[in-house]
Automatic annotation (TrEMBL), chain A:
Residue span(s) of domain Aldehyde oxidase/xanthine dehydrogenase a/b hammerhead: 20-135
Keywords (A to Z) from UniProt: Molybdenum, Oxidoreductase
Superkingdom per UniProt: Bacteria
MF terms (GO), sorted A to Z: iron ion binding; oxidoreductase activity
Name under which the protein is recorded: Dehydrogenase
NCBIfam families: CODH_aero_grp5
SUPFAM superfamilies xrefs: CO dehydrogenase molybdoprotein N-domain-like, Molybdenum cofactor-binding domain
Organism: Streptosporangium carneum
From TrEMBL, chain B:
Keywords linked to the UniProt accession: 2Fe-2S, Iron, Iron-sulfur, Metal-binding, Oxidoreductase
InterPro entries given in the database record: 2Fe-2S-bd (IPR002888), 2Fe-2S-bd_dom_sf (IPR036884), 2Fe-2S_ferredoxin-like_sf (IPR036010), 2Fe-2S_ferredoxin-type (IPR001041), Beta-grasp_dom_sf (IPR012675), Diverse_Oxidoreductases (IPR051452)
Keyword rRNA-binding: no
Pathway note: Alkaloid degradation; nicotine degradation
UniProt-recorded name of the protein: (2Fe-2S)-binding protein
UniProt GO MF annotations: 2 iron, 2 sulfur cluster binding; metal ion binding; oxidoreductase activity
Boundaries of every 2Fe-2S ferredoxin-type domain copy: 4-80
TrEMBL record, chain C:
Organism expressing this protein natively: Streptosporangium carneum
Keywords: FAD, Flavoprotein, Oxidoreductase
Lineage: Bacteria, Bacillati, Actinomycetota, Actinomycetes, Streptosporangiales
InterPro entries with a match to the protein in the record: CO_DH_flav_C (IPR005107), CO_DH_flav_C_dom_sf (IPR036683), Diverse_Substr_Oxidored (IPR051312), FAD-bd_PCMH (IPR016166), FAD-bd_PCMH-like_sf (IPR036318), FAD-bd_PCMH_sub1 (IPR016167), FAD-bd_PCMH_sub2 (IPR016169), Mopterin_DH_FAD-bd (IPR002346)
FAD-binding PCMH-type domain segment(s): 1-177
GO MF terms, alphabetically ordered: FAD binding; oxidoreductase activity
Protein name: Carbon monoxide dehydrogenase
Superkingdom of origin organism: Bacteria
PROSITE patterns in the record: FAD_PCMH
Keyword Oxidoreductase among UniProt keywords: yes
Amino acid sequence: MTTKLFGEPVRRREDPRLLTGQGRYLDDLGEGAFEAAFVRSPHAHARIRDIDVSAAIDVDGLVAIYTWEDLPPLLAEPLPLLIPHPALTHGRTATPLARDVVRHVGEPVVMVVARDRYLAEDVCALITVDYELLKPVVGVEEAAQSAHLVHADVPGNVGAHLVQEVRSAAGLGAREAIEAAPHTLAFRLDIERSASMPLEGRGVCARWDADDRSLRVYTSTQTSTSVRMAIAAKLGLPLPKVEVIAPDVGGGFGVKIVHPWPEEVLVPWAAILLGHEVKWTEDRREHFVSSAHERAQTQFVRVGFDDAGRVLGLDVTILHDHGAYTPYGIIVPIITSTQLPGPYKLGAYRVEFSSVYTNTVQVTPYRGAGRPQAVFCMERTMDRIAEHLGADRTAVREANFIQPDEFPYDQGLIFQDGRPLIYDSGDYPGSLRMLKELIGWDSFDRTKELAAAEGRRIGIGVGCYVEGTGVGPYEGGHVQVTSDGRVHVSTGLTSQGQGHETAFAQIAASELGVPLERVSVVTGDTRRFGYAVGTFASRAAVMSGNAIALACRKVREKALRIAAEALEADPGDLEIVDGEVRVVGSPGVAVPLATVAVLSNPLRYAFDAEAGRATQFAGTSSFDRPPVAEGEEPGLEGRDYYSPIRSTFASGMHAAIVETDPLTAEIRILRYAVVHDCGNLINPMIVEGQIHGGVAQGVGGALYERMAYDEHGQLLNASFMDFLMPYATEVPFVETAHLQTPSPLNPLGIKGAGEAGVIPVSAVIASAVEDAEGIRISRMPISPSELFDLRRAAP
Amino acid sequence: MTDIAITLTVNGVVRRVETPGRRLLSDCLRHDLGLTGTHVGCEHGVCGCCTVLLDGEPVRSCLMLAATADGHEITTVEGLAAPDGTLSPVQRAFAECHGLQCGFCTPGFLCTVTALLRDNPAPTDEEVLEGVSGNLCRCTGYQNIVKSVHRAAEIIAEES
Amino acid sequence: MKPPPFDYHAPGSVAEALETLAEAGEHGKVLAGGQSLIPMLNMRLAAPGHIVDVNRLAELATVSVESDGVRVGALARHAQVERAEQVAAAQPLLRQALRLVAHPVIRNRGTVVGSLVHADPAAELPAVLILLGGSVRLARPGATRDVPAAGFFTGPLESALRPGELAVSALFPTLPPRSGTAFHEVSRRHGDYAVAGVAALVRLDDDLRVVTAGVACVSAGPVPVLVDVTEACGHRPAASADWASAARAVRDRIEPETDVHASADYRRHLTGTLAERALRDAARAASDE
């Protein structure tokens, strides 16, 4: 490989357009489209008695008003339950518009289409919905008590219940192992709701071509291929007549993997019905109450351990708040329960979760997707063990680590992809060594004493995690070299700022030996690539990266074959350098890839001078075989797929030093250190950026962000004034170090990096605040007001 | 509610628009003038995505009626590069330092930082943080944005 | 999140603005900086029939230091007042407070008088006006009246401004020699409304003993809470004044509420702590005069 771009911090190809206002996000499209707005439920739980639109119909500019009764049969049904699971015995999804009962504030009831959004909102304000109020269920404990039901036909509000147990080497169950252990502890942990909260909300723009009877839908999604299939199914359209495109997307972080959203089927439906382009751009208030949240769990932990702090048995029971519906199945609690063991060998492990319905916004994955809760649980447990034994917190972790020579390591659980959870590679003791050095763990006691002498309280915390990344089932890549020498790469999954256009171009340029500038990458456009799963679970680089590499290798092989014939050389003696196929050692003997592309496509018509070289009288083809030989296809292109046997497992460890104000209880992060291992790095600059952003979201989740519902199910802080996403002034400088343990599972040796930064932050900050204050932290996020309360309650 | 005729000078070009009195400047720029580089992230003035320069000073275009801007000069992200397309020092610095990911908040940061460095060509870390403290970014964690601002200051100093 | 329909008026003179407002009566709303009004319009929490945009009235965009204080016109932006050196010299508390108002970009647009009229009990400027004993000048066609701060703030987001009136300016009195001020607050994020905040004013005699000491607290009740702590801190030299006792007096007086960001107890505790810090700083500033 001569064009070494893989592994280099090359600048992003996306940036020039995004820096000049030339990006195209959803609301930048569809000028002249009708715009939709929704009447949404103001109540958490209510029965719709009547909808009165009479006051609204005179508004100038009104185009249409739709309620559930207007929907055709397929659309009137509940939306799909995307990921069924045998344990999800009572999965429930909403209808696109509420049929009779609304189950959370924000649920769509009426769709309005008007000439513009201002008018559509005017119409919404004039529609009256008469509700009979029902008793709302808010919070997991109230749900578990089940005095009232969210869904009348779901007893106990329990949507799913799942137990997994891994027995000890000696055959003991976790509970037996805990009973037999020298030390045991039991405690409860709580973690509250936050949300993905991308700065661009959701949005859909649909264009119906009545002449062609085809539909083009733009949507701010993490999975355009699956939205396409859902729309075709829901609207009864032939799949080839539907195309779905994810334009530039202003952040996803999980919320945009859910699909089809009600609006994703209603807007196209209205566009067809009205014969006019229709657009809906979600506003911020809608995003708070109508999309999805995550994180809320209550965990009951029992652990048994020996004098060295080795965990002999761990038994965790989780109450998971699923909100009003379960369109994304139980992926989040499955991830919590299976990623909980982290980098540790637990003697025996039992985990049980109940996923309960509440009259709140539905819960679906948000960056980290259940792992922050898992790591909070495991790492709080490690700290409790250390406290109990009077041991150093890192020593307890070391005592439990899986060792580098123990890979592949089977945790004995079934992961979120339905496949065995087997760690592929890693070096946990090495990571911890690096981290301790980076943060100065061993000298911190002295630092703390010096600070205390000045009346300052500081504390240090640590958190370790293992993250299953690159989950299947597959992704594909298509690579085409055109006769101008350009390389066109496409893959079906989508981009929301991860720099795929750059990273995938680096892979293609490296594999094909062409300059980066010649490569262009398209993602998330079903016109270019129809088979894909989507962007989530830190999988894009692993899945599409490898698929594109494999597709490039096909193209390369074909290019060498064709060039070998033209150069009368052996393909094995050829290399591609700077877009030219050359004989190794004789750089003068070469043919440009552009020419190879011409030769790959035998032509009758010369549409340009270069093409003339491949026409039928150019004398280039042999008379002994047909112009397109058997087993060959015209064109210099290749398509391939990557479908892994199972996930790869990235890992990392974070440490933080915090200061708490003795008087005001303000919490300030003084230092934040990250050691991260995601295997081989495609573009270290981009990976670093992913970590920074993840840590910032983690800091938000640890110290600032929560969804504050009152007992009526009203979200009290549904604005950026009161839902406190950190600004630059709240986020610490992140110090990073990388360890590279390549994955043996894929050709590029890479693991995912997208979610890593966010995962351990709540655990780390809790650990550090606990160290500073000497007060147990069992609940995150923590605000100064709550720290003040804890201080007062402390013995 | 009759439409109001207003005149704005946007990125140096005089534009006349007929607009309802209630139309937000952000919507006017995006949908009446086709300058969709100015983004709308919250419509209550907190996120800063819609920040533009009004007579050179950064303001929230979602917290201003288009009619109020009548007669004023506005610079949007589309107007930051030189007429020949050369990116401004701030734009170049953001590209160099990976100061953006999804790019949605970026136009607001670029406008804010352009004014910040004009008023204070060599800001300290604290001044940079204070300067960008009203702009939310959900992707970058801000570290590379702060780095970009310092780098932009360097580029401006080198080129002046 | 788009504003509801309204009639838009852009008067070219104060007189025309007053006429328009008088006609609109209770359906009229003044638009100046818009940094509080427009979010409320976008969320449709306000639906005035008439918006009277005073942004063309350059005559209101004035800041002047007069014999009795700093007079701030209705169109003077936060940033303009914050940057004015003569204002900082005449009444330092204004700059001390303005630096804490939201973010720089908001301050480029928001107006001082608008903030007073908005009367948010979590905002800094109402507390400043109350502490300094300032006033707001309200006008209607043919008449103006000055309302003292003590009577101006009547409840959360409620002021003495009557329908049809325009707040044309506010007066922030200057202080006699040996006076000092300070503003301390804690907010969840930098630039957020304060969880608790305290503006303090201390006057000393020539022997540097405390003559008067007072604080105005934000987020501590339905309106900014003014607490005279002169007695609590004692007629002592500033260096040995009993600021802790003053803090206790403040904690006793205020009536903060619990919300999503903080409990009432925490706010009470925090306000006392901030009062102590602010009083100490104010006294130091007075000593240095």
